[in-house]
Amino acid sequence: MSRSETLRIRKADKLTGPCVSAGDRAYAIGTQDGGFVSTGWHLPGEMGGVWAHPIKLLDGFWLQVDGRTLPPAHAFTAGPFWVLHEYEPADGLRVTRRQFVADGEPTLSVRYTFRSSRSRRLHLRFVAALDLQPVWSPNAELSDAGYFPSFDIESGTWLVHHLSEPWFVLIGSPSTIASRDQGESQAPTDGLLPQNGPAMALNYQLDVAAAGSAILDMAIAGSYRDAEEARASFQRLRGVDPLWDIKQARYAQVLSSSSLDVPDESLLATWDWLKCNNDWLVRDVPGVGRGLGAGLDDYPWWFGCDTAYSALGCLALGQHQVTIETIDLLRGLSERGNGPCGRVIHEATTSGEVVHPGNTQETPHFATAVWETFLWTGDTEFLHRNYDFCRRGVLGWLFTDRCTDGDLLPTGCGIIEIAGLDLQCIDVAAHTFTGLKAVAGMAETLRDDTTAEHARSLAKQVRTRLEQAFWIEEEGLYGDLLASPREFLERLAVWKAQASGRMDESGRDLVAAIEGLEWKARADPHPDERRAWLLGNWTLVTPLEAGITERDRASRILDRIETAEFIGPSGMYLSSLDRQHAMSINTGVLAGIEVKYGRPDQGLTRLITLASTLEAHMPGAISEMSPDYGCFVQAWSGYAIAWPIVNGMFGIHPDALHKHLELTPCFPSGWERGRLGSLPIGSAHFDFEWDGSSLLVRSDKAGWTATSPTHPVRYETRSTVLQPG
Predict the structure, then answer these.
(1) Please, which pLDDT band fits residue 450 given cuts at 50, 70 and 90?
(2) Element at 94 (helix H, strand E)
(3) Quick one: residue 34, left, alpha or beta (phi over 0 = left, psi -120 to 50 = alpha)?
């Protein structure tokens, strides 16, 4: 059996947590016990239910059997592309509910299976709570224009049309097994669901033989353009089993690519799920584009910073096509929202609306992701599509609009989204360095020698300037930002007022820390001269992430970072001043840094911390916030685990265009073996095998070379045998 048939996690307790059954055109977010609850904050309480972006279709649905609503499920199983709810047997009847979304279909498929100890006829009533709403927009409110429902006797379906928009939802059974009775509108919800619209009901009779089983298939199809699209998708769901087989076969390919075998079991358990997580987050919206969203439930759309990280995770996990699609989409949305300047947006929804023009670091960070994607794929057409945009953004917008005082360190917000951090930030400077190197590499590849030389020269200058401006010798750390004491005091006053509103001990500790910074700022004899200030945000490690920091200095930094000041039980704190929260992304970035600077054992510790949360929120997903809150599935969690292993521990640095690999393996001391199989690079697939002292590399294509400055490397071309049929 393929991995797509065996991968699953089953649980039978604590089932009030979230779950998703997702495809690229639709998804359903509910709870593991089979319910639906108000969830999310972008659209308050509305981010769950059934969605076919850019619209929501339903708040949820449920089934009544012989007049009784199914109780909460007593067991839940997460599969790679499906979920299953099991209901407690009653009166000799066992019921399961399986959900999945077929590839390319704006339709949720729901299959109820009934197994009975005796022959019986079941009277079934499927009830769906309507909520046709648009995706979130800061410029629009929820729609309450009303609906027009129509019941089609021939197909036994409800078609509901939003009265003021071309939005449709179609509900029914594509199965030929069930007999259909007249549907009912305005059905009561029994208080089980959040409800903004009417509830539509469909009634069925189903015969179950003794010791046998019977199936009721339901489908919920949507369209934001016309009724015919919903009808056509519903019709295709009449062949739901072939669609299931197609998706299962595709997942078998996804899971066989970039396969991992290492001594640590928690990483093995997590690895394949990361690929599934990425696939769940792909949003394909006709007329807008296709790409990897950031997270569920609150961030199903597209972000600059998230893409720059998650793209590298996808490369390491073998998901190259979605990497290219997402980067191309983000470039197009940025050009639509910001014009030709090359600035990368921060956020755009599935309606195509750009809701944030972009933080400063996102423009150079995007260029780094473009260059890394090219190195892995060798796709020159991709490079041509993105080069001029990156060149304009990094060499134009970044150094014109963001460096107005002639300094080489751009101003503006970075990754940390806190009001007031709009000065010269350490992560902006670090990503400016890597972005310049990326543009130089692109330019050199495309024979734009003048640009390549200019970008490399700027990169050297930025590196020198960063080290001079941000390093705080007495702390042994980089500062978070550059500001004059006067500028810093203005911001500290705001942050202290916010912290003062917290009545717990951590709030009081934060106020005390801010007051200490205020004392330093007031004591500075040069109130208008900019200097580095230490806030202890995680981004102070980004110069190490960028490879700027020399090893001796890096060791000094990491010796302090790897203490309780910065590290908690769930990973690296977002802030050492306010040790309350950790994210998968900053813990993963730190893991990669530790491997980069020769500390793989510490890096492995960070990865194990992340992997231990695989079942903490939704089984099979790593949450945005560690261990179990924020978005319950997050794209950059794939980067957080996969990139430190592939780029760091296996040390894979490809140049697909020139068919060359540079390898710098750096494995944990306890790993006497390790294997990474069928990793796509360019048009080839590679196997990497570590035996404790050397690395064996096998390729299915001839003409490649592999070298390592640190370890013995053996390279072989393995033959590929194609089986007939």
Answers:
(1) very high
(2) strand 93-100
(3) left
Task: For residues 60 and 48, give the distance between their C-alpha atoms in angstroms, rounded to a whole number.
Answer: 8
Query: Do β-strands 695-699 and 713-717 pair in parallel, antiparallel, or remain unpaired?
Result: parallel
- Which residues on neighbouring strands pair with residue 199, listed in sequence order? 129
Q: Which helix (H) or strand (E) holds 235?
A: helix 227-236
Concatenate the DSSP letters of all residues of 607-641 into one string: HHHHHTTTTTSSTT---SEETTBSSSEETHHHHHH
Q: What angle do CA 465, 471, 476 make, to 5 degrees?
A: 155
Residue 599 above 90 pLDDT?
yes
Percent of the chain with pLDDT over 70: 95
**pLDDT at 716 (0 to 100):** 81
Q: Taking residues 160-169, report their average pLDDT.
A: 95
Largest CA distance in the chain: 89
605, 673 in Cβ contact below 8 A? Answer: no
Domain 3-252 class in CATH: mainly beta
Q: Which two tokens stand for residue 39?
A: 């969830």
Q: Could you tell me if 633 and 20 are in contact, meaning their C-beta atoms sit under 8 angstroms apart? A: yes
What one-character-per-residue DSSP string does 505-533 give? HHHHHHHHHHHHHHHHHHH-S-TTS-EEE
Q: How many helices (H) and strands (E) does the chain have?
A: 18, 41
Q: What tokens does 247 get?
A: 């998706």
Q: Which of 68-72, 276-280, 576-580 has the lowest mean pLDDT?
A: 576-580
Percentage of residues in the chain having pLDDT higher than 90: 85
Helices 362-377 and 426-445: crossing angle in degrees, nearest 10, is 40
Q: How far apart are CA 674 and CA 651, in angstroms?
A: 12
3 state DSSP class of 597: coil
Strand segments, DSSP code E, in 102-228 are 107-116, 120-134, 147-152, 157-162, 168-172, 179-180, 199-208, 212-223
pTM: 0.95
CA distance readout (Å), 676 to 478, 638, 654 = 35, 16, 15
pLDDT digits (tens, 9 = 90+) for 172-215: 999 855 555 555 655 445 545 545 668 899 999 999 999 999 99
Contacts 24+ apart (CB under 8 A), 260-265: 260/645, 260/675, 260/676, 260/677, 261/673, 261/674, 261/675, 261/676, 261/677, 262/645, 262/671, 262/673, 262/674, 262/675, 263/670, 263/671, 263/672, 263/673, 263/674, 264/604, 264/607, 264/608, 264/611, 264/671
Please count the other Cβ atoms lying within 10 Å of the Cβ belonging to residue 710: 12
Place of tokens 């950059």: 636
Report pLDDT digits (tens) over 533-568. Answer: 999 999 999 999 999 999 999 999 999 999 999 999
Amino acid sitting at position 598: G
Spatial distance between the Cα atoms of 705 and 657, rounded to a whole number of angstroms: 12
SS3 of residue 353 by DSSP: coil
Q: Are residues 582 and 568 in contact, defined by beta-carbon separation less than 8 angstroms?
A: yes
Helix 485-500 and helix 505-523: axis angle, to 10°? Answer: 160
- What are 151's strand-pairing partners? 158
Query: CB–CB of 628/302 below 8 Å?
Result: no
The residues spanned by each domain of the chain are 3-252, 652-717
Residue 294 vs residues 64, 280, 301, 624: alpha-carbon distances, Å: 36, 11, 6, 9
- 567: part of which helix (H) or strand (E)? strand 567-568
Q: CA 116, 120, 124 angle in degrees (round to 5)? A: 90
50: β partners: 28, 58
Q: Which residues pair with 706 in a beta bridge?
A: 661
